[in-house]
Amino acid sequence: MKVTISRKAHFNAAHRLHRKDWSFEKNDAVFGKCNNPNFHGHNYGLTVSVTGKIDPETGFVLDVKVLADIIREEVEIPFDHKNLNLDVPEFQDLNPTAENIAVVIWNKIRKRIQADFDLEIVLNETDRNFVTYKGEE
C-alpha cells in the first residue's frame, strides 16, 4: 500500500529570463517583460509530495517534520529573498524559468529522499501559472 504525503512551502525571489548568448532583441521577443534588465519577482508557492509505503513501526511514509526540514534547508534558505540569477549557483548558467526552478528543486530534494520513494514538485509562480515535475520518466 502506497500513500502520498505533501508539504507546502513558499519563498520570494527575483529573477530575469534571459539568455546571454542571445541579442537583447531576441530575448525581448521571447521573454517580453520577464527579460527586464532590473529583474522582477514572484511569491512562489511550493508543494512537495512524497509517495511510498507506510512504515509499520511509525505509521509514516516520511515524518512531515523531516520533509519540512529538507524543504527549508534545500529551498527556503538558499532561494528566499534572493535574486536567482545572481545569488543561487544553480542558475549562474541556467535560465531560471519556472520549469528549470522546479527541476533544480526536485534534484536538490531528491538526493535527501529514499530512492524507493516517488517525488513530485509543484511550483506555483503565480496563482494561475504552475509547473509540475516528477523526475525523468
UniProtKB/TrEMBL annotation:
The active site is at C34 (proton acceptor), H81 (charge relay system), E125 (charge relay system). InterPro entries: 6-PTP_synth/QueD, 6-PTP_synth/QueD_sf. Pfam families: PTPS (PF01242). SUPFAM superfamilies: Tetrahydrobiopterin biosynthesis enzymes-like. Its cofactor is Zn(2+). It catalyses: 7,8-dihydroneopterin 3'-triphosphate + H2O = 6-carboxy-5,6,7,8-tetrahydropterin + triphosphate + acetaldehyde + 2 H(+). Keywords: Lyase, Metal-binding, Queuosine biosynthesis, Zinc. Its EC number is 4.-.-.-. It comes from the Bacteria. Gene3D superfamilies: 6-pyruvoyl tetrahydropterin synthase/QueD. One of its GO terms (biological process) is tRNA queuosine(34) biosynthetic process. One of its GO terms (molecular function) is metal ion binding. Binds 1 zinc ion per subunit. Zn(2+) binds at H15, H40, H42. Pathway: Purine metabolism; 7-cyano-7-deazaguanine biosynthesis. Belongs to the PTPS family. QueD subfamily. This is 6-carboxy-5,6,7,8-tetrahydropterin synthase. It comes from Flavobacterium hibernum. The lineage of its organism: Bacteria, Pseudomonadati, Bacteroidota, Flavobacteriia, Flavobacteriales.
